[in-house]
């Protein structure tokens, strides 16, 4: 890297770390003159030269010291981002600030005592006052950082919550668009009509499962997450409708570990993947479409289906997969993985636990 590019990168980082933050703007007007007086003593106020020069010198020292303080605060915030970790984050930030402040202040006082710039008269009593002042300043600075962080975090969570609601509404609309439409109703009612005359008991069961499907579709997106157990109960009802319609041409295998049932996923995720499989594959009793839902361990759930090319392929809009990815981006640090090869289409979903939900 050239010297010019290196200086440009350093300057950009300093600008973003310091002058782009309101904390530094609040700190400078009172902190720099006060600490200048404590470090230089009475000569600081005895001439314009000493006042201006001493202020600029301490201002430059403050910038140098503030950069590692700012980076330490941001590093700790990244390690403990949750609002539930406020006390721990504040305590660690304060300790880091006190250590850094002690190192920088000690070095600066040694420099001033050694070279006596601007006729400085720093003695032992003044050094104690400097340490006491810095101790109080660190408490105030920590408070400002925590207030700034908490407000921004709260704002971010609020924005994310609104985005999740929008994604949920889009998912609900997409699901209803795919399911609650004349074509779907026509096929369902045709199936029901045939069952009523030939198999009335199966017709009654079909109506019950159909009611469960529609109830879940209409209600579930009120929540950001649903348990895997609830989603699988819904999928069994949804599968019953598909199985009644396609008979042995469609098969679903669910192999989910009991310990995964209490974990969370975005609602309608499995339904969208089953719908995707039915939409893009041929379904024949002689060559069935098979969908498998199984636990992989490590908080992962795999949904796969064999690929059976349709004679007239359906154009993919990828809205269902895009909706799933959008929800995971908002709700988790891990994203689904998609493997689309010639034989099998596979989606691996992360199961969301309280530890993996984005804060």
What does this structure look like?
The chain is an alpha+beta fold and about 350 residues long. The chain has two domains: about 5-160, no CATH class; about 180-350, Heat Shock Protein 90, CATH 3.30.565. The chain is about 65% helix and about 10% strand. It has a five-stranded mixed sheet with strand order 2-4-5-7-6, covered by helices on one side. The protein has a two-stranded antiparallel ribbon with strand order 1-3. Strand 4 and strand 5 (about 300-305) form a beta hairpin. Helix 2 runs antiparallel to helix 5. The longest helix has about 55 residues, at about 125-180. The radius of gyration is 32 Å and the shape is rod-shaped.
Provide the number of structural domains: 2
**What is the end-to-end distance?**
37 Å
**Large-scale geometry:** rod-shaped
What profile does the largest beta sheet have? 5 strands, mixed
C-alpha Rg, in Å?
32 Å
Helix content: 55-70%
Please identify the top-level CATH class of the largest domain.
Answer: Alpha Beta
The assigned structural class equals alpha+beta
List unreliable stretches of 5+ residues: 6-20, 176-181
Average predicted local confidence, pLDDT: 82
| Tally of helical runs | 10
What is the CATH architecture descriptor of the largest domain? 2-Layer Sandwich
- β-strand percent reads 5-15%
Strand order in the sheet with the most strands: 2-4-5-7-6
Order of helices and strands: HHHHHHHEHEEHEEHEE
Domain Signal transduction histidine kinase internal region: 172-247
Transmembrane segments: 21-41, 47-69, 90-111, 131-151
GO molecular function: phosphorelay sensor kinase activity
InterPro entries: Bact_2-comp_sensor_kinase, Sig_transdc_His_kin_internal
């Amino acid at each position: 890297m050239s010297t010019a590019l290196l200086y440009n990168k350093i300057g950009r980082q300093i600008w973003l770390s310091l002058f782009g933050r309101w904390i530094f703007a609040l700190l400078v007007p009172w902190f720099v003159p006060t600490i200048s007086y404590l470090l230089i003593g009475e000569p600081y106020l005895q001439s314009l030269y000493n006042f201006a020069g001493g202020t600029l010198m301490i201002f430059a020292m403050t910038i140098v010291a503030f950069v590692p303080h700012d980076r330490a605060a941001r590093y700790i915030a990244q390690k403990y981002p949750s609002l539930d970790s406020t006390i721990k984050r504040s305590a660690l930030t304060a300790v880091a600030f006190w250590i850094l402040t002690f190192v920088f202040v000690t070095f600066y006082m040694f420099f001033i005592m050694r070279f006596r710039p601007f006729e400085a008269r720093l003695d032992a009593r003044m050094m104690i006052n400097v340490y006491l002042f810095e101790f109080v300043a660190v408490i105030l600075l920590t408070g400002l950082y925590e207030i700034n962080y908490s407000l921004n975090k709260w704002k971010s969570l609020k924005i994310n919550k609104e985005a999740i609601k929008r994604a949920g509404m889009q998912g609900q609309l997409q699901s209803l668009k795919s399911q609650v439409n004349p074509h779907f109703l026509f096929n369902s009612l045709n199936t029901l009509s045939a069952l009523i005359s030939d198999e009335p008991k199966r017709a009654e069961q079909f109506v019950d499962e159909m009611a469960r499907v529609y109830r879940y579709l209409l209600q579930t997106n009120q929540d950001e997450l649903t348990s895997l157990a609830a989603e699988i109960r819904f999928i069994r009802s949804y599968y019953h409708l598909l199985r009644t319609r396609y008979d042995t041409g469609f098969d679903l295998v669910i192999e989910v570990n009991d310990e995964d049932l209490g974990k969370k996923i975005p609602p309608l995720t499995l339904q969208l993947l089953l719908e995707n499989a039915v939409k893009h594959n041929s379904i024949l009793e002689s060559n069935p479409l098979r969908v498998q839902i199984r636990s992989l361990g490590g908080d992962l759930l795999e949904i796969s289906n064999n690929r059976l090319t349709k004679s007239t392929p359906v154009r993919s809009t990828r809205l269902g997969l895009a909706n799933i990815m959008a929800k995971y981006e908002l709700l988790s640090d891990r994203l689904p993985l998609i493997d689309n090869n010639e034989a099998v289409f596979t989606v691996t979903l992360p199961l969301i636990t309280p530890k993996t939900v984005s804060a």
